[in-house]
Design a protein that fits this description.
The chain contains 14 helices and 22 strands. The protein is α/β, with parallel strands linked by helices and about 525 residues long. It folds into two domains: about 290 residues, Aldehyde Dehydrogenase, Chain A, domain 1; about 190 residues, Aldehyde Dehydrogenase, Chain A, domain 2. The strands form six sheets. A seven-stranded mixed beta sheet has the order 15-16-17-14-13-19-20, sandwiched between helices. It has a five-stranded parallel beta sheet with strand order 10-9-8-11-12, with helices on both faces. The chain binds NADP nicotinamide-adenine-dinucleotide phosphate and magnesium ion.
């Protein structure tokens, strides 16, 4: 095991890593390869649990490679995970918060020690490049530490309230926030550490117990996080890790009255179904939904062309366009349009695609066959109704032949086309010429989503932009990413409208409270 990393990695600082990072990543990759095909259980009540049926976790860059074998859990497994979490709740919720955060910080330190191993597993199961994979683990660690810090800063959310003026009596009033009970976390494939670990960290710091179900494409990253929690000494049953299809295991969890609150991060369609199904219970339970995006970038005629092009290309194609925050709609004022689009195309064509674990490559494959087909269908639609400026084909020669490789694609499309409002979640972005910033803003806000956005232009224009845009996380003049690269404590992350349900962003001041309900204690004695 390696000692804690000696530099601070964030998505915005990852572009120039020290050599040590590459060397450590390569060593971890070799360890992973030596264990290819190994079987991993679920973790229920502290024990490894195996199912009849298995899920093979394959490498999307070479589908002959089986990274590991995971469990296709059943409805029964889902129920026993909930029962274990229920049993552990009294003990964990009555563990003083100071002790809880001590254990969570210990788990975060273990994640830091194991960052290269977790990152290597993630790079392979998602098809994420090494820097993005390490960034995802580092973000998870930051989310753990941030949740702990917020417990401390708020004294565990205990507060004395005012004393009501009772004649002849003295009253003291206290407000506390207390955990709900069993918290369900369902996470997507694209940030399998931060979107499993982040919600779990908040739920646990608050005193809830957790059942975690990761995406079926990416079971390994969450397993490694669950191991860190177990090895840190978090008691059995406090964190339970179950794997298996969303439609069976996931749905059983959602339909269970044993769940007291849920954090779901994933697509709009699945999220809205969960919202409706979860709402059929006898009372309203907290439902934190972090859903899709269709993130616009507006470029003013006053923008710096090189900054805009760099930020747009990074955000459109980082993780092959499979970020909820990906830049997918680019509205450019007419005077800059031709030059900027030419530069975006040039930069896109220079992107290196291949094995995501290879340090030379910026882009890997898309995550699975279904995304690979989606890409091809969207490309046909773009060819029919618009104009492809670069990309527009899958890559199948030589080393690409065994994976789901798609050329990053920039296309022009009539502004009334349906794909301007549809989250594609593959490496495709669309560009359009606009005659004014007002026109661009009208288009930018005319979608059901409201997750992130980007702007390039003058400072005064940026003030206007921040005031008008309907989205949770917004950037101006950022070369490191037009719409991507939020970091806990710096850019708390969450969406408006169809992109999120709580109105409070993860990694921010108001998030941890979502995992607790308020209770008031009034004591009265004679004066
Ligand atoms: P997804 O298909 O919606 O799946 C997300 C999770 O839900 C997976 O664990 C999935 O399990 C599970 N699931 C599916 N059907 C279910 C059901 N009926 N009941 C309970 N659980 C169910 O999303 P994805 O393809 O993994 O991720 C991409 C999506 O996530 C995009 O839309 C992206 O924008 C969004 N996202 C949002 C954020 C944010 O912070 N707002 C961040 C990242 C990603 P299986 O894998 O077994 O199907
Ligand atoms: Mg999926």
């Amino acid at each position: 095991m390696a000692p804690e990393s000696s530099f601070k990695l964030t998505y915005a600082t990852m572009f120039n890593p020290p050599e040590e990072l590459h060397q450590r990543f390569d060593e971890a990759l070799a360890r992973l390869k030596a264990n290819f095909g190994k079987e991993y259980g679920m973790i229920i009540d502290g024990k490894d649990v195996f199912a009849q049926e298995k899920i093979e976790n394959r490498f999307p860059a070479d589908t002959d490679v089986v990274i590991g074998v995971f469990q296709k859990g059943s409805a029964e497994d889902a129920k026993s995970a909930l029962a274990a979490a229920r049993k552990a709740f009294p003990g964990w919720s009555h563990t003083p918060w100071q002790k809880r955060i001590e254990l969570l910080r210990k788990a975060a330190s273990l994640m830091d020690e194991r960052i290269y191993d977790i990152g290597a597993a993630m790079a392979m199961e998602v098809g994420k490049n090494r820097m993005e994979a390490l960034g995802d683990v580092a973000e998870t660690i930051a989310l753990f530490r941030y949740a702990c810090q917020r417990m401390e800063e708020t004294n565990g959310f205990e507060a004395e309230m005012g004393a009501d003026p009772l004649v002849g009596f003295v009253s003291t009033n206290k407000s506390v926030l207390r955990p709900y009970g069993v918290w369900l976390v369902i996470s997507p494939f694209n940030f399998p550490a931060a979107l499993s670990g982040g919600p779990a960290a908040s739920a646990l710091a608050a005193g809830n117990t957790v059942v975690l179900k990761p995406a079926s494409d990416t079971p390994m990253t969450s397993r490694l996080l669950a191991e860190c929690l177990r090895d840190a000494g978090v008691p059995a049953g406090v964190v339970n890790y179950v794997t298996g299809p969303g439609s069976s295991v996931g749905q059983t969890l959602i339909d269970s009255p044993e769940v007291d609150g849920v954090t779901f991060t994933g697509s709009y369609d699945v999220g809205m179904k969960i919202y409706r199904d979860f709402g059929t219970s006898r009372w309203v339970r907290p439902t934190i939904l972090e859903l899709g995006g269709k993130n616009p970038v507006i470029v003013s005629r006053h923008a710096d062309l090189e900054t805009a092009a760099t930020g747009i290309v990074r955000s459109a194609f980082g993780l092959q366009g499979q970020k909820c925050s990906a830049a997918s709609r680019i509205y450019i004022e007419a005077p800059l349009y031709d030059k900027l689009v030419a530069r975006i195309v040039e930069m896109t064509e220079a992107l290196k695609i291949g094995d995501p674990t290879d340090r030379a490559n910026m882009l890997g494959p898309v995550v699975n066959k279904s995304s690979y087909k989606d890409y091809q269908n969207f490309v046909s639609e773009l060819k029919e109704s618009g104009k492809i400026l670069t990309g527009g084909k899958v890559l199948t020669d030589g080393a690409y032949s065994k994976g789901y490789f798609c050329a990053p694609t920039v296309a022009e499309l009539p502004l009334n086309h349906r794909l301007w409002k549809h989250e594609m979640f593959v490496p495709i972005t669309t560009v359009a010429k606009v005659n004014s910033l007002d026109e661009a803003m009208k288009l930018a806000n005319d979608v059901e989503y409201g997750l992130t956005s980007g702007f390039y232009g003058s400072d005064e224009e940026a003030d206007w932009f921040f005031d008008k845009i309907e989205a949770g996380v917004n950037y101006s003049n950022r070369a490191q990413g037009a719409t991507t690269g939020a970091w806990p404590g710096f850019q708390p992350f969450g969406g408006w409208k169809g992109s999120g349900s709580s109105g409070k962003n993860a990694g921010g001041l108001h998030y941890l409270q979502l995992y607790m309900h308020e209770q008031i204690y009034t004591r009265v004695r004679k004066a």
